[in-house]
Fold:
Amino acid sequence: MTASTDIVFAEIGARLRAHRLGRSLTPEALADRLGISRAALYRAEKGEITKIEMLTAIANELNVSLPTLLGVGIEYVPNAISFFERMRQIEEDCEQIVGLFSPISYLVTTSDYDRVLQEVLYESVPGDTHDDVEGIMSILLERKRKYNLKRPLLASIISDADLARFMRDGLEGRTGLPADLVAHRRRLAVEEVRHIVDMLRDPEIGVQIGVAREPIPSTSFQIVRKGGKATLTVSPFRLGHSPNIRIGVGFITSAPEAIDLHEQIALRLWDSSLKGSEAADHVEALIRQYGNA
Structure:
């Protein structure tokens, strides 16, 4: 068996784990449903799959298609836990990340943002789905930890309109919050934007930020490169203000056409974006305009 084949099977195991998490199944519960041992499922999630029949049974139990588990064509991901887990897996040991997320790539947000984000996500979902929030936050924090440990190159494109909206509305999981809490959340949003200004004026090694002044796509996407391979993730899920972790279908693909089209969007926005001190001056003007309303 060649090394490239090993990598493919490892990726199948990673997808299996992500979709299991998305179905809120423990390894023991899924193994029991499949009539196999916990050890056998563990090996499958490590990519040690010897029979297509087992993979077919797993796909049926997780309610995903066999091509999705195999990574053939487009991988559709129907819930936020599975999607963010797949992002975490794809980013692991990567060399470069190019992202378009609002208000900025989660990977370079502050620890204060993490604390308020968990509160905001709790607000955004019914009480009986709080386990989803805990699962998502665990995955997000692990993503950030691995990013800070490995420090791949990161290019993040942000929208000045999104920053203005972020400061004007603050971090809210739902409407109707008490006025004092809304004011507090708006102050936290402004502090996060000030952190962006700091990164623009004194860039961290390997981090590039562009501030776009033209309209940007409504869906977030990220292109991750590792070992000559590029992977595109397109997300319907949203963190921060008015988050959505409940409804949507994300997709993941390495199809050259999809990569090329999204890379063209990223390059166009990057070329026309403000950068460095010019971008910092522009964002500070936005803070003066929207941060004290």
